[in-house]
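Page 37, continued from 36.
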């Protein structure tokens, strides 16, 4: 069994502003796992295939990225035996298209979340993960 508190939480998004906002909100949240960000699907897949890469506690994938989109990355991860144990892969996007939601589930995502529109909502969402998905909670 893995120690989730040492496993990174990963955001994969080609939008630099979205990654900066994610980092700011992450710092304000109760999560204390290391945060890793990647600006492309290819960069994240290369990281996962490096040896030894810290196994993520949770991966949040943007859908719309050039090159390997979030669906491609999800399909790649779920098709490989060594990556099937990633406990949580969430599609994290501005889309609210039911077809995107359905495709995410079909490819093995654990959930589909529309990106919050405010910092407060974003931090609250991350705090929910702290209590339900990633058990490590920073002391205050």
């Amino acid at each position: 069994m893995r120690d989730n508190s040492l496993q990174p939480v990963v955001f994969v998004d080609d939008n630099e502003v979205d990654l900066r906002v994610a980092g700011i909100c992450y710092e304000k949240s109760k999560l204390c796992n290391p945060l890793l960000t990647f600006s492309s699907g290819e960069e994240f897949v290369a990281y996962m295939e490096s040896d030894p890469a810290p196994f993520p506690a949770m991966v949040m994938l943007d859908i719309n990225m050039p090159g390997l989109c979030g669906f491609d990355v999800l399909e790649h991860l779920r098709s490989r035996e060594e990556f099937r144990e990633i406990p949580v892969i969430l599609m994290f996007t501005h889309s609210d298209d039911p077809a995107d939601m359905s495709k995410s589930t079909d490819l093995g995502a654990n959930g589909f979340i529309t990106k919050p529109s405010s910092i407060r909502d974003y931090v609250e969402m991350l705090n929910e993960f702290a209590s339900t998905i990633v058990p490590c909670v920073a002391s205050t």
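The beta strands are 9-12, 35-38, 58-61, 89-93, 111-114. Flag for discussion at group meeting. The radius of gyration is 14 Å.
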